[in-house]
């Protein structure tokens, strides 16, 4: 929930804080670098906490950091008034949440339960029905959660596909490598975090470089 609130709001505020395109492109790259730094610190700090304080401690460390972030946002960010009021897409929200929840359950439990499980089949049915229902509702809604017209822009489609692949490959790779290093190579949680550090450093450097390149040459959509 925190990430779902934090990421879109951050990008929505950037045009108000940095109205000029070139500085905003550099800030986007810096934003990605900070997220990458957090991804780098996560396995290392998580390994340290698990090693010395137990796995429950990884859920407590976010609370003071989140509270400091809220306080800093309240004190430092400008107050921005939104544009025209939009109707709340209740049907789209409900179908979107249901579809994603069913898909998440399906992907997590499928290797354990198998396709013959009635729960897996139910989750698959809910996912398919929810996805179809979501598309139909969004096409007919006066104020859709995701306007279908966005998908007519090739730049939008390419950016979303690229972002999806980065997240699947990077964060999926961290998850798989963490299990592999601890279960089969017998690394400690802390040593596993240190082994994964170069991946995050490369991603952080790439984000900083991409921000500078976009500010210099612009973002190429086509």
Secondary-structure map with pairings?
Blueprint: H1 2-17, H2 21-53, H3 57-60, H4 62-76, H5 90-113, H6 118-140, H7 154-183, H8 189-217
Provide a compact summary of the structure:
With 222 residues, the protein is mostly helical. It contains eight helices and no strands. The chain folds into two domains: 1-79 and 154-222, no CATH class; 89-142.
Please give a structural write-up:
With 222 residues, the chain is mostly helical. It folds into 2 domains: 1-79 and 154-222, no CATH class; 89-142. It has helices at residues 2-17, 21-53, 57-60, 62-76, 90-113, 118-140, 154-183, 189-217. α2 (21-53) packs antiparallel against α8 and α7 packs antiparallel against α8. The protein is globular, with a radius of gyration of 21 Å. The model has no long low-confidence stretch (mean pLDDT 82).
Question: How much of the polypeptide forms β-strand, as a percent range?
Answer: under 5%
What general outline do the C-alpha atoms trace? globular
Number of strands: 0
**Can you tell me the residue ranges where pLDDT is under 50 for at least 5 consecutive residues?**
none
- For the record, the count of structural domains works out to 2
CA-CA gap between termini: 33 Å
Q: Could you give a short account of the major beta sheet?
A: none
- Seen as an oligomer or otherwise, the chain set is single chain
Helices and strands, in N-to-C order?
A: HHHHHHHH
Q: On the 0-100 scale, what is the average pLDDT?
A: 82
Query: What is the helical fraction, as a range of percent?
Result: over 70%
SSE class: mainly alpha
Number of helices: 8
**Alpha carbon gyration radius:** 21 Å
